[in-house]
Amino acid sequence: MEITDTRPLVVIVDDEREILAALKRTLMRVDVRIEPFTSPRLALEFMQKNQPVLIISDQRMPDITGDKLLTEVKQLWPDTKRIMLSAYEDFDSVSAGFNQAIIEKFISKPWKNSELVMLVQDSITSKDASPAKNQLSQKIIGESTKIKQLIDQISIAAGANVPIYIHGETGTGKELVAKACHESGCKREGKFIAVNCANFSETLIESQLYGHKKGAFTGAVSDQEGLFAQSNGGTIFLDEITTLPMSLQAKLLRVIQEREFTALGDNKLMKFDAQIIAASSVKLSDAVNNGEFREDLFYRLNVIPLNLPPLREREQDSYIIARHFLAKYNKQQQKNFTDFSKDARNFIIAYPWPGNVRQLENTVHSVCIMNTGKEITLAMIQPLLAEQLKINEPAINTLTQPSYQPSEATQFSATNNDEIIPLELVEKNAIEHAIAKCDGNITKAAALLEVNPSTIYRKMQKWS
To answer: Where residue 28 sits, what CATH number does that domain have?
Structure first.
């Protein structure tokens, strides 16, 4: 009697028999039926009558390239999961494949067996309402259309194992999203290490990332392991990447391409095996156009772009998030608040929150500390925002109307008879002060002022 193998079908395709055999040995740890092929055309013929739950394909094959094979598979069996196996030199093909939704996950050669097994297990068990996506929904709070789309994008990006770039205004939660990508990815058992590139001088950030040997520079009194080494097997999050000096951008490009680096003062090459997630409040494309960021590095980092919407574009998420923070700080401060009053709720929804989620959290936290009662009222919130934003109470009070438009938040009026400084002069002084503080670095100054560098360049051209 013929026994039918009912295990999930996994097709693996690579023109090199040794690699195909190694793949098969690794995947024998997973309870699946494996069908190996050295010819992509034969693999396609087989799949005409057999739908796999997963296909793993090499990119560089003489007959049909991997991305073309996966395109055919997507058209034939749209529900089949698709993993690209290739070297890091194939970033252009991989990036295009992700953008066209042809490639769902990526793993580099040489691979780590544990990571490959984890990717396969995640792929064959994932459903539309997967546990990973449910976990993301618990960490990234909101019900707006943009946030639901972002959660879908993160669930795809997390398992891709390629560089991810996150763009969003200050306070939108870029590090939170980076952590979510790490915790849902194949390197989740490793460390998550975050570093803000804007917080260090050129020499110090280089030492932080690469590490150094004793005597490598003045003050290097002992060996220090860098963050690249510490993050091996995990994820390194490079925040405000646009502030990285040009010389270090070239070094970072080499790390991504060659998957190796050397510590300062050392000639020994060290392997780099970490997921890179970069982020900035300034768009990478703007930094490239302004000559402040390398175009080749842009393409290496921007394989999977994630755009975080500001809070003002997230429908009524601000109130949902405010309730989350209320529950958190209510318990932390041992208070008895149950909710927000109606006028406070309307205000929270209508207010544009220029500091985004971070500003909303700080406001709710402060209210919980400074007040008592059952409800948080508008009178508790208004003074805090007036102090934060240095604006007068009447301008804030206009927000209690549901018909409020964000542009009204910019209305200022004189509160005394003191001399009024022209707004243009105030703006000019603020920009010049930021540039001076950043030693002439326009990108860093723009990050501090929370504007695009192009805005500063336009202003400076106007003044000259």
So the answer is: 3.40.50.2300
Rounded to whole angstroms, how far apart are CA atoms 361 and 43?
A: 53
Domain end point (choices 69, 90, 125): 125
- Model-level pTM? 0.71
State pLDDT tens for residues 271-306.
998 999 999 999 999 999 999 999 999 999 998 899
Peptide bond into 110 cis (omega under 30): yes
| Residue 2 placed within a domain | no
252, two tokens: 């970072």
Q: Are residues 112 and 143 in the same domain?
A: no
**Residue ranges with strand state E in 181-301:** 192-196, 211-212, 224-225, 235-239, 260-261, 270-271, 275-280
322's tokens: 């405010």
If you count DSSP H runs as helices and E runs as strands, how many of each does the chain have, helices first? 21, 16
Residue 340's identity, in one-letter code, is F
What single-letter DSSP state applies at residue 112?
P
Read off the pLDDT of residues 77-90 as tens digits, 9 standing for 90 and up. 998 999 988 875 56
Q: Which residues, at least 6 apart from 152, have a Cβ–Cβ distance to it below 8 Å?
A: 133
Question: Which structural domain range is residue 71 located in?
Answer: 9-125
Lookup: tokens for 310: 């500001």
The answer to the question of residue 417 being in a domain is: no
* CB neighbours of residue 98 within 10 Å: 21
